[in-house]
Amino acid sequence: MFDSLFIGVTGLNAYQADMNVISNNIANVGTTGFKSQNMTFQDLLYQSLRYASAPTQTNGGVNPQDVGLGVKVGTVGTDFAQGGLQTTGINTDLAINGNGFFILANSDGSGRQVYTRDGAFTLSSSGTVIDPSTGLAVQGYKANANGQITQTGTPSAIDIPLGLAMQAQQTDNLFLGGNSDASQYAATASGNNSQA
Question: What is the pLDDT of residues 29-44, one digit of tens each?
Fold first, then answer.
């Protein structure tokens, strides 16, 4: 009798944990960069009340008689599927479309890095792109003189120098292409319009 109560309690505990995961998902439905979680269940060991026996010349075999001892939490996994992107109108807000994370690090040189999908960033007073909730600097690879970004070396803080005047560069080449609409009238040399 008591075994059935204990087995039932394992189910209650497992489903309580599942409700906690679901509640956390609901509570964070509006959190930027949040990734929902899901839970799987796993059965506990079985208790053998009677073992199986092989068939004989006169009798068939007997199946084992096992009683399950309940359920437990198997895994709590995070769903890293792409969420919906939305425009905020804030120039420093960023989003990753696809796989990957933003790298954040302390500016103290400790080397400690954390990863996030939350791209709600801002600029510090010195022009460094930071996460306003933690103060950690967003890390990235520097661009070369041609503006190309190569993933060599160690990522460092992204700085956007404010008030810096950039040297203007004249336009070198201009390409203009187009075509006439064949359904429109074309002007002739005599000045009369004709169907093209």
Answer: 988 888 899 999 999 8
Strands (DSSP E) found in 64-169: 65-68, 71-78, 102-105, 113-116, 122-123, 129-130, 137-140, 156-157
The reported pLDDT for the residue numbered 34 is 86
What are the respective helix, strand and coil percentages of the chain, to the nearest 5?
15, 30, 60
User: If you search the block for the tokens 């696809």, which residue do you land on?
Assistant: 98
pLDDT at residue 129, as a whole number:
94
The answer to whether the beta carbons of residues 42 and 74 sit under 8 Å apart is yes
Pure H helices in the chain: 2-27
47, β-bridge pairs? 67
How many Cα atoms occupy the beta-carbon half-sphere of 86 within 13 Å? 9
Closest CA to 131 of 164, 158, 100: 158
The per-residue pLDDT for range 156-170, each reduced to its tens digit, is: 888 887 777 667 778
